[in-house]
Write a structure and sequence with these properties.
The complex is a heterotrimer. Chain A is an all-alpha fold. In chain A, about 80% of the residues lie in helices and about 0% in strands. Chain A has one domain. The two termini of chain A are about 25 Å apart. By secondary structure, chain B is mostly helical. Chain B has one domain. In chain B, helix 2 packs across helix 6. Chain C is mainly α. Chain C has one domain. Helices cover about 80% and strands about 0% of the residues of chain C. Chain C is built from 2 helices and no strands. The radius of gyration of chain C is 24 Å and the shape is rod-shaped. Chains in contact: A-B, A-C. The interface between A and C is large, with 41 and 30 residues.
C-alpha cells in the first residue's frame, strides 16, 4: 500500500520481508492512536443525533468498515494489475494477504449494518442497495479466497486470482448499478446514514476511525504477507539463513 | 475471423450432439427446479405469478452452471486445448466460438422451454413473450461470463462448486435485468428498458469475456 | 466537553446500548482475534519450515 512507489526497490521478497516486519508495529501503534482519538471524539464528545438518538454512533465503525472493504478490493485489484503486467512475485502475495482482512471488513459492515437497521427500521436485514452490494462484495472476496486456496501451484494461484480480481473490479460498477436499479424499482428502504446532517465532531470522529481501520489493515496484511513469503520462498537462500539463524 | 469462429462452433456442436444426454439432463434440471417451487410455496396463482420471473431466472442460472465445467475440460484432457493455444490465430476467437456453441446447446433450449414453464406459473401471454425473449438475449452473457470461471477453475479439485462460487455473484446483473423485464411486463410498466440493458450486458460480455477467458486459459496451461 | 453525565448513561447509549455495544464489541473482538490468529499461524509455519529444513540438512549430510 504505502510502499507502492518504492515498488521496484522493495518488490523482492528478501528486501520486503524485513521492511514489513519493521513497519508492522509502527502501523499498529498509529492505528491505536487514531482509534483512541476517534473513539474519544465519536463516543464521548460527539452530540446526540437529533433524528437517530445515540444509535447513530454505530456509524463510527459501520462507515469505516464499508469504506475499507471496498478500498481493500480496489487495492487488491491494483496489485493484480501490477502482477499481471510486470510479473512481480510480491503483488500476488500482497493480494492474498489483504483478502481475509477485506472479507472481515465486509462482514463487519454487514454486522454493524444489521445492528443499526434493527432499531432504525425494526428489521435486522433490509434489502437496501448498499447492504446488498456489500453482501455481494463479501461473496466476491470469498470467491477469490476459495480460488487461490484451491490452486496448489503458487504462481498459477497468483495469476488466476489476479485475473478474477480484475474481472471483479470491472463488474463491481455494473453490479452496483443493477442493484441500485433493482432497489428503486422495488422501492426498498434506503440507508441514508451519511446524508443526515452531520456535526463536525461526528465527521472528524468518522474520519479518524477510518484512518484507524486503514492502518490496522496495513499492519495485519504485512503480518500475513510475511508468513506467505516464508512459505513460498522456503527453498531460497535468504529464508534458509533466516530460519537457520534465530528467527526473531 | 468468422471462419475460425464458425469452425469452432460446428466442431463443438458436433461433439455436443454425441452427448445429447448432457443437454437433455441440463434441460430437465431446469424443468424440475422450476416445478419444485409451486410445491414448496403453494399453488395460489397470484403468488406464483409474482415469483415466476425470479424462479425461472434463478433456475436458468443454475442450469447454465451445470454444463460450464465441461466447456474446456474435455479439450484440456485430450490436449486439444494446448494445440489451440499454440495455434497462430488468437485464442480469444476460439473461445468466442466455444461460448456461442455453449449457448446454442444450453441457453437456447432453456429459452425454448421457458414459455411452457411460464404457463405453470399462470403468466400472461405478454409476460411469456418477454420471458422467452429475455432468456434468449440474457443467456449468452451467462455463457460468456461463465467461460471465464470455467477457464479459471480448469483442472482443479472441486472445480464445479468453486466455479459456482466465482460465477454466480457475477451473474447478478443478468438476473436483475432478466427477471426485472418480466416483472415490469407483469406490472404493466413495460420491459423495454430492462431488455435493452440486458442486451447491452450480453454484447459487453461477449466482447470482453472471451479475451479474459483466453488469458485465464493461458494461465491454466502454463 | 464530554457529552455524558454518568458512566451508566454512557453504557445505556440512550436505549441503544445493545446495538451500539454489539457493533463495537464484535469489531473489537475481530480486530483482536485476527492479529492473534495471524501471529499464531506464523509461528506454526516457522516451526514447520524449520523442521523441514533440519530434515533436509540431515539427509544431505548422510
Amino acid at each position: 500500500m504505502k510502499d507502492r512507489f518504492n515498488l521496484y526497490r522493495f518488490a523482492s521478497p528478501a528486501t520486503f520481508y524485513p521492511l514489513a516486519g519493521a513497519l508492522t508495529p509502527f502501523f499498529f501503534a498509529v492505528a491505536a492512536v487514531f482509534g483512541l482519538a476517534g473513539l474519544w471524539l465519536g463516543m464521548l464528545v460527539a452530540p446526540t443525533d437529533f433524528q437517530q438518538g445515540e444509535g447513530y454512533r454505530i456509524i463510527f465503525i459501520h462507515v469505516p468498515a464499508s469504506w475499507m472493504s471496498m478500498f481493500i478490493y480496489l487495492i487488491m485489484a491494483g496489485w493484480a494489475a501490477i502482477g499481471l503486467a510486470f510479473n512481480t512475485r510480491l503483488s500476488g502475495m500482497m493480494a492474498q494477504a489483504l483478502a481475509p482482512t477485506g472479507a472481515l471488513m465486509a462482514f463487519l459492515s454487514l454486522w454493524t449494518g444489521a445492528l443499526w437497521g434493527k432499531p432504525m427500521w425494526g428489521a435486522w436485514w433490509v434489502w437496501d442497495a448498499r447492504l446488498t452490494s456489500e453482501l455481494i462484495l463479501l461473496f466476491l472476496y470469498i470467491g477469490y479466497m476459495a480460488l487461490t486456496a484451491a490452486i496448489d501451484d503458487a504462481r498459477r494461484a497468483d495469476k488466476a486470482g489476479a485475473l478474477l480480481l480484475l474481472v471483479g473490479v470491472v463488474n463491481i460498477p455494473i453490479i452496483y448499478f443493477s442493484v441500485q436499479w433493482w432497489n428503486t424499482l422495488h422501492q426498498g428502504s434506503s440507508v441514508n446514514l451519511s446524508k443526515s446532517s452531520m456535526a463536525t465532531t461526528m465527521l472528524w470522529g468518522m474520519l479518524l476511525m477510518a484512518m484507524c481501520f486503514w492502518m490496522y489493515s496495513i499492519a495485519v496484511a504485512f503480518m500475513r504477507v510475511r508468513t506467505i513469503m516464508l512459505e513460498r520462498e522456503r527453498n531460497t537462500e535468504w529464508v534458509k539463513t533466516l530460519l537457520a539463524g534465530d528467527e526473531k | 475471423m468468422f471462419k475460425i469462429i464458425s469452425a469452432v462452433i460446428s466442431r463443438d456442436l458436433k461433439l455436443a450432439m454425441r452427448r445429447q444426454a448432457d443437454i437433455v439432463s441440463a434441460l430437465f434440471f431446469f424443468i424440475i427446479v422450476v416445478s419444485l417451487f409451486p410445491l414448496g410455496v403453494g399453488p395460489e396463482p397470484d403468488l406464483l405469478r409474482k415469483l415466476a420471473p425470479g424462479v425461472l431466472w434463478v433456475a436458468a442460472l443454475l442450469a447454465t452452471m451445470l454444463s460450464l465445467p465441461r466447456l474446456f475440460a474435455d479439450d484440456h484432457r485430450d490436449g486439444t486445448l494446448e494445440q489451440l493455444a499454440l495455434a497462430p490465430h488468437p485464442l480469444g476467437l476460439v473461445v468466442t466460438g466455444k461460448v456461442i456453441a455453449h449457448w446454442l446447446v444450453s441457453g437456447l433450449p432453456l429459452a425454448l422451454i421457458a414459455p411452457v414453464l411460464g404457463i405453470q406459473f399462470d403468466l400472461s401471454t405478454d409476460a411469456l413473450v418477454v420471458l422467452t425473449f429475455a432468456i434468449l438475449i440474457g443467456t449468452p452473457a451467462l455463457s460468456g461470463i461463465g467461460a471465464i470461471g470455467a477457464a479459471l477453475t480448469l483442472g482443479l479439485r472441486g472445480g464445479g462448486v468453486l466455479l459456482s462460487l466465482l460465477v454466480l455473484p457475477l451473474y447478478i446483473p443478468v438476473l436483475i435485468f432478466g427477471a426485472g423485464a418480466v416483472d415490469a411486463t407483469v406490472t404493466g410498466l413495460g420491459g423495454e428498458g430492462h431488455l435493452s440493458l440486458l442486451a447491452a450486458l450480453t454484447f459487453a460480455s461477449l466482447g470482453f469475456a472471451p479475451w479474459a477467458t483466453a488469458a485465464a486459459l493461458k494461465i491454466a496451461l502454463e | 466537553m464530554i457529552h455524558w453525565n454518568s458512566f451508566g448513561e454512557f453504557l445505556a447509549m440512550g436505549g441503544y446500548g445493545f446495538y451500539v455495544w454489539g457493533s463495537f464489541g464484535v469489531t473489537a473482538l475481530i480486530m483482536l482475534i485476527e492479529p492473534i490468529a495471524v501471529a499464531r499461524n506464523r509461528k506454526t509455519t516457522i516451526a514447520r519450515l524449520k523442521r523441514q529444513l533440519r530434515a533436509e540438512n540431515r539427509n544431505t549430510a548422510e
